[in-house]
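Agenda item 2: calcium ion complex prediction
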Amino acid sequence: MNHNLKEIYTYAMEWTKEAGENIRASFPKTLNVTSKSNPNDLVTDIDKGTEQYFIEKIKGKYPDHRIMGEEGYGDEVTGLSGVVWIIDPIDGTMNFVHQQRNFAISVGIYVDGEGMIGLIYDVVHDELYHCIKGNGVLLNDKPIPELKESRVSEAVIALNALWVAPNKRIDHQMFIPLVQDVRGTRSYGSAAMEMVYVATGRIDAYLSPRLAPWDIAAGIILIKELGGEATDLRGNELDLLKENSLFVSKPGLHSEILKHYLKDGKW
Ligand code: IPD
Ligand code: CA
Ligand code: CA
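Presented output:
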């Protein structure tokens, strides 16, 4: 299959900006909020409408492309051959509902399993972070510099406080030495935004024990394009057909944290 990646990139940017415009227009309206797997797993009619909007646009122009979307309106994707769009229509829905900020649209486009186009749109600030593989990452029209090496003692990392308290998923002890040794910790409540903050160097790393493919598909393309590292918490390659733990970071810092802080982790 011969794909016109430049054209796909142009449409992806146009549709993402348009989807963001629709979300901004929804702000004055009352949200219809329901929960999914648990009372804190929120979804709104805007999450659903945004995903449906993408599907209509993509299928209208590219009927042979497949779509993996969080809200389930896309295809049942069991392999990554051909062109696959991996979409989170709103990443950070809890922030969207409570704050109407700190959320993003995340779109990763994979061709035969390779991440080729990544877009994360900070809708409230009208900031589109985007790249096509091999051409660097832009914030709107402005190139983002390559990531520089960093060290634990000077690092600000993103980590949800939940993982440093007793919880059902991981041994919470495992992150304590890292949290004690870094310069500071942050938690923004949107994996896509946290990955953008790593890509732009605003934070040095982001760690999470479990994320879905649509949370990370775009962010890992942007971070790798800038020379950063993206693996699971054991340093293994990520698999976009299942849930993964995630560890993204600036170069240098990644191997330091893996070697000294994560090697004995139980999760
Ligand atoms: C969530 C956010 C959050 C992360 C959760 C995700 P959603 O995505 O990225 O930061 O901790 O694991 O599910 O539900 O808002 O799209
Ligand atoms: Ca998400
Ligand atoms: Ca979502």
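Discussion summary: The longest strand covers residues 83-91.
Owner for follow-up: CH.
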